[in-house]
Amino acid sequence: MDTICLILVVLVIGCYGYKAESGSYTLKLENASFEDLHSMFKKIKGTGTGLSQHNKVFSAFAASLTASKTLGNGEIVKFNKVWTNINNDYDQITGVYTAPQPGVYQFSCSVMTQNDKKLRVYLWKNKERTVAIYPGYTGHNMGTLNMVLQLEKGDKVYIKHGGGGREIHSNTGSNYSMFSGYLIR
């Protein structure tokens, strides 16, 4: 596919048309070398990588928790209702997202506490704790995190109980607690 697109660009950049007496247009190749045209193509694209950018794998997921739960110490939250799972990189059984390729990723998580209960969870990258959500404990409270992470292929990202409060609230009808992420580039 890249070769076909490159040939088309070469024809567009390196050719000019003239109208023949029959009324049709005829293309005539200029004296540019293939290397010159390929170099121009890279500059036009601006990345130097040509069309291969479109061949990368895209990944995105969104999942929610369908029932309230008391989390065990250090337990990974398993968001079991999967709404989107492009490329199947989120595992609802383990609650872990695995990066399919190196890149920059965006992750979001919103959690709700059970009535008058505490909750603290963290976003983890592999074995590294990053940012926390601590929504409070008077009534039902919501907490949200948003994080951009640079990941390598195979890196694991998940939401894990972080000590202190451990009562997470959700239900099937409203799906209050959720986790999502996607590959930016």
How would you explain this protein's 3D organization?
Residues 54-185 form the C1q domain. One of its GO terms (cellular component) is extracellular region. Residues 1-17 form the signal peptide. The chain has 185 residues and is mostly beta strands. The chain folds into 2 domains: 2-55, no CATH class; 60-183, Jelly Rolls (Sandwich). The chain is 14% helix and 46% strand. The chain is built from 2 helices and 13 strands; from the N terminus they run αββαβββββββββββ. The strands form 2 sheets. Strands 3, 4, 5, 6, 7, 8, 9, 10, 11, 12 and 13 form an 11-stranded antiparallel sheet that branches. The protein has a two-stranded antiparallel sheet with strand order 1-2. A hairpin with a 4-residue loop joins strand 6 (90-91) and strand 7 (96-98). Helix 1 (2-14) crosses helix 2. The longest helix has 13 residues, at 2-14. The protein is elongated and about 70 Å long. It starts with a helix and ends with a strand. Residues 3-19, 25-29 and 47-55 have low confidence and may be disordered.
